[in-house]
Design brief:
The protein is mainly alpha-helical. The chain has seven helices and no strands.
Amino acid sequence: LVSVVMLTSLAEAQNNFRADRKVTGDVYRPYTARTYSRHAINHGQILHHYSQHDQSVPKETAEEHASEARRNITAFGKELAKLEAEFKNDAEAMKLIKSIRSHHQQASEHCTMLEECCKDNADGKRIASCCADMVKHLRAADEAHEQLLKHLKIPVPTPAAKKEEANTKPKKS
């Protein structure tokens, strides 16, 4: 019985984590994907905020945020493809990746509309609408990505400030 439990545990560990993940940098891939996703959300939120408060957004500002959102959405998709290849034998992971991909695709389509809005005249209401839809799908993809991290038992990195605080607090004697 102990042998069966050990072999099952070993098989599960090998399924999710190869021994060379740190050496190849694959151990950081889920974090990188998360970072790109969050940056795209931030650019969408900022542009949405600008467009909510002004009738029009300066064209340069609108194009800058739209292009950064696009760059991060594209990078998120590339990182997701690498995760997909790494965990292709994990049915639950693939289900979550499929959900992420669906929202990612919709966010990308709204980003394309946003880029077109920015080229025309940077009308605040049109930009706000594109941003709201894009951010909605990016957040849904981000939530599914968080579920994927939990499923894969990948810990969310601790913020640097908290680590530094923990290291600088005086120890009780």
